[in-house]
Prior knowledge:
Elements: H1 3-19, H2 23-32, H3 46-52, H4 55-84, H5 100-114, H6 127-137, H7 139-156, H8 159-176, H9 181-197, H10 199-206
Helix pairs in contact: 1-4, 1-5, 2-4, 3-4, 4-5, 4-6, 5-6, 5-9, 6-7, 7-8, 8-9
Amino acid sequence: MSELAVWTVVFTAGAYLVCGIPFGLIVAMAMGHVDVRTVGSGNIGTTNVARSVGKGAAGLTLLLDAAKGLVWMLVARWAIAALALGGDAASLDHTTVFGTTLSCVFLGCILGHVFSPYLRFRGGKGIAVGFGAALGLYWPIGAGLLALFLLLVIPTRYVSLGSVAAAASLPVWCAVFGFPPVSIAPVAVAAVVVIWSHRDNVRRLAHGEERRFSFHKKGEKNDPVEREAR
Length: 230
C-alpha cells in the first residue's frame, strides 16, 4: 500500500472518530438538561435540538457540527500533503486523482456523524457536518448546497425537504466543478447515506405528515420520542 493510501485510511478513520462526537446531545444536556434521544424525533441534530431546547442550543449545535467537518477536512488536507506529498497541498486539488483522498475523508465525516461510535452507531442525519466538510472539500460545493437548502426550506419550512435535495445534488455539484469520477464515488456514497438517514422524513413528506420547522418555546412541554422516526 502506498504512503498516500495509508494516510488516507488514517485520516478517514480520524474523520469517523472526530465527526462522531455527538455535539447535539452534549449541548442539549448542558443547556436544557434534555436528552434529545428521548424527545421529538429522537435525533441528535440541529432540528430536534431546536424543537426540544431552543434557538441558542440549536445555533451552537449547528456551529459545532459544521465546524467538526470543516476543521477535520482542513487538518487532513494540510497533514496528508505534509506527510505524503512533500507539503504540496496543490496535489490534493479536487480535479486531480489525488483529490480522491479528500473525498474519502469527506465520507468518513458523514459516516462518523450518522453512525456515531459513541452512541452505539446511532447519530444525526449528516446535514450540518456535511455542509462543513463540503466547505473543506471545495468551498463552492458547500455554497451550492447551502443555497439549494435555503431555497427549499425558507418558503416551505420543511428542513427535511431541503436536506434531502441538497444531499441528492452533492454528486452533481462535484461533477459540475470538475471532480473526476473516482473522486465523485465516495461523495456519492456519502449522499446516499444522508438520504437513507432521512428515509422516515421522506415517507412523511410523501404522506403530508412531516412537521414544519419550529423552535422550542420556554415552558413548552416536549413530546416523547417518535419511535417510528428513528
